Amino acid sequence: MNADDFGFTRDVNQGIIEAHQRGILTATTLMANGAAFEDAVRLARENPRLDVGAHLVLIGGLALSTPGKELPAGLPQLLGAIAARRLRIYEELSAQMKRIRDAGIRVTHLDTHKHTHLAPPVLEAVARIAEESGIRWVRRPFDLPLTAARGGAPWLKRATSDSLTVVRARFHRVLEQHHCRTTDHFAGFQITGRFRTRELVALIRALPEGSTELMCHPGRATDELRAARTRLKESREQELAALTAPETRRALGESGVELVDYRMLDDK
Predict the structure, then answer these.
(1) What is the tens place of the pLDDT at every residue in 171-225?
(2) Is the whole-model pTM more than 0.85?
(3) Do the beta carbons of residue 27 and residue 261 sit within 8 Å?
(4) Cα–Cα distance between 85 and 230 in angstroms, integer?
(5) Where are the domains of the chain?
(6) How far apart are CA 220 and CA 180, in angstroms?
(7) CA 214 to CA 198: how far, in whole Å?
(8) How far apart are CA 177 and CA 237, in angstroms?
């Protein structure tokens, strides 16, 4: 169970820690350019059982490699910046990794904000950074082909998820070239923003054999988050409720699902 956006706002940080302490959350990924980065680092130190990775950001917020410069506001702007070579992807992501590691965080896994490492130039940079840093695990953002994984997702989101299969072979080939690994399965893309206890329990009961990363976005929706630029606000409270619900814990036991983190997978 891996939560995105650690370091985004203090109330998101609070929700992630609650989901870890009271629920089934085992891992999270930290945003080096997040407004609440220092708060997240403090919380990570206070909760050493929480497995922390890097949530590398190329969309939204300030760049770290070029202080004062804004990162592209959305995916079209990012693709335009990449095409025009206005953004040095490797340098920016390396600067973000450096800030996280300089804070004393042992990074065990990598993913990207908005799944930008599906773009070949971003994937090359992420895989290179992972190899140089000795990090074995990189997210594979290809949703499980299960009805439970869709959770009532709108047709456009389902179609987007299905279309990603065409890049899967190249994606895994690049990671293998850099000695990176992924979990066997991934879920969470199609139910982002619609993540309730019922959907989570159904997904747990339908999990296939092997390791699965389930992406989530828990948080507390206070004034700080409501003022932030994100579409995920009140839905974070609902995800937190699902992650801490007794029914969720019961579904794990009844389905024989073992909670792990990336440190545990390293030992398998």
Answers:
(1) 999 999 999 999 999 998 888 888 899 999 999 999 999 999 999 999 999 999 9
(2) yes
(3) yes
(4) 27
(5) 2-266
(6) 33
(7) 15
(8) 39
